[in-house]
Amino acid sequence: MCGIVGYLGEDPAGPIVYKGLQNLEYRGYDSAGVALVGEELTVQKRSGEVGALSVPEIPSAVCGIGHTRWSTHGPPTDENAHPHTGLTGEVAVVHNGIIENYESLRESLSDRTFTSQTDTEVIPHLLEIELENGHDLYTALNRVVSQLEGSFAICAVHAGRNEIVATRNQSPLVLGHAKDGVFLGSDVTAFLEHTRDVTYLEDGDIAVLRPGDVHVYRDGTEIAYPIETVEWEADAAEKGGYEHFMRKEIHEQPASLRQTLSGRIDLDRGAVELDLEFPKGYLSSVEEIQFVACGTSYYASLYAARLFEEIADIRATVSIASEYTFDGGRDPWRTLTIAVTQSGETADTLGAIRRAKRAGAQTLAVTNMLGSSVSREVKNSVFIRAGPEIGVAATKTFASQVTTLALLAVYLGRERGVLSPSDARSILEDLRGLPGGIQQVLDKEASVKEAAVAYQDSDAFFFVGRRHGYPVALEGALKLKEISYDHAEGFAAGELKHGPLALVTDNTPVLAVLTDGGNIPNTVNNLVEAQTRGAPAIGAISESHEIDSLDVGFEVPDAGLFEPLIANVYFQLFAYHVANEKGRPIDKPRNLAKSVTVG
Amino acid sequence: MANQTPPAVILAAGEGRRLEPLTNRRPKPMLPVANRPLLEYVVEAVENAGLDRIIFVVGYYEERIRNHFGDGDSWDVDIEYVTQEKQLGTAHALLQAAPLINEPFVLLNGDRIVESKLVSDVQETLETTGGPVVSVTHAENPRHYGVVELDGSATRIQSITEKPTGPIQSNLINAGVYGFDQSIFEEITQTTTDSGELAITTTLTNLLADQDVHVVQYRGQWLDVSYLWDLLTVNAALAGQRSGERSPESDKVSIAADTAIGSDVEIGPHASIGGGTAIGANATVEANAVIINSIIFPDTVIEAGAVVRDAVISENARVGANVTIAGGDTQMVVDGTVYKDIALGGVVGDNATLGGAVTIAPGTVVGDGASIDDGGIISGHIESDAIVRRG
Question: How far apart are CA A230 and CA A195, in angstroms?
Answer without folding.
Answer: 9
